[in-house]
Amino acid sequence: MTVRKFRPPNRLANMIKERGGILAQDALVAAEAGVESLREASLAALDETLAEIERRFCKGAEDREHEPFEGLYLLSSRIIDVGHFVSDTGVDKAAVSLCTLADSLAEAGVWRWDAVDVHLNALKLLRAMGAQLPADQRDAMLEGLYQVSHHRPDEV
Known about the structure:
The protein has helices spanning 11-17, 24-36, 39-57, 69-81, 91-108, 113-129, 135-150. It starts with 10 loop residues before the first helix and ends in a 6-residue tail after the last helix. The radius of gyration is 22 Å and the shape is extended. The chain is built from seven helices and no strands. The protein is 66% helix and 0% strand. With 156 residues, it is an all-alpha fold.
């Protein structure tokens, strides 16, 4: 019995072997410039999303108990989408924790408003001054959010 190996052409490997093109370091500089061009619009989207979360889910928001769990999850995931521009603040990690919380709330079918409120307050604080906080304090805050989002009242 004969075994034949089939190897499709690898376009990337062929491009690497060709002369010309741009150097990797030049490609990285161009990519960073391209990403940086998105900073202003991304920060505006971040602030708009935080405002919408506040309007729909904060303490005192009308009909917040009727909001869908998925709404909170989707809004939190928008923050993660632009988190690259605020990675030094912890906002991106707090949004991941809020997504985890929204997911567990949806699974349980019950709102835990104290946990949501803690996350929203943390997001406001981190957005306002997360970059100025000492790293150990910021990390402690994020660890606390992680514990809140992973807490299961029925498993106590």
